[in-house]
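User: Quick sanity check before I run a bigger batch. Here is a single chain. Can you write out its predicted 3D structure?
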Amino acid sequence: MVKQKTIYLTLFVATFAVSWAAILIKLSGAGPLPTAFYRMALASIILAVPALPKVRRALRALDGKDILLLATSGIFLGLHFAVWVTSLFYTTISNSAILVATQPVWVLILEATVLKERIPPRSVIGMMVALVGIIIISGGDFDMGRDYIIGDLLALAGAIFAGLYLFIGRRLRAKLDNMGYIVPVYTTAAVTLLIISLFYGVNLTDYSMKTWLIFLLLALIPTVVGHSLYNWLLKFVQAHIVATTVLGEPIGATILAIFFFDQIPGWWTLIGGVLILSGIFIVLKKRRKKENIIIPE
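Assistant: Done. Predicted structure follows.
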């Protein structure tokens, strides 16, 4: 049985790791599509080396419907990175990270409508508090021009794709171990991003050593560590709990953006950030074990 302390510690480490994504993307100096592609491609290669035997066994154990779901999950993940990374080139790091964190709303809707799961009132209240914070933050962009609005919409689209990815992952993680799930999904995401990049004719090769290093760090920190830990957690907690904890990412990204890019958040960002953290606290505090923890097989 996995202890709740282990769950909470893993959630913290994963959130801290993914908070570096926006910073590294802006530091890379490359365009959004190649950055997203190499992030997923390098992560797939790094993980595939130790996990290949598990992946083969996992795929053989799945039926055709599950294989299709696995591919669909990877496509949604690829689309998530395509639109979200692009949003960082139009709006601020804090707003992009915060808007993409609305994914719990979409996961909650899917769990309640498709799976007919009972969503505890505490989760609903916590996410509503967090959403008020997101609305306050995004409202600050309405008077800053067309590009900022485009960036906000792209980040919101990224949230929808991420919600679909997490929702499908909840079902598949009940049948697959972590490596057996994430390697095929990351690889499918990388292939999706490669196809999109080739379609738009973007440069995929001519980069400096610094950029290649940033690509590698993107693969290692927010992806191999951050996203992989989130996927591990899907076996033990409801998907909307994992997705709500992701709301902590914009807080970390906003703080890091101050030091790396002098992007000082406005008062609306500070107020919204407090509400987001409060929402996460409400969702996670004193939840009964039977609502959160699934005993592994």
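The mean pLDDT is 80.

User: Great, the batch can go ahead then.
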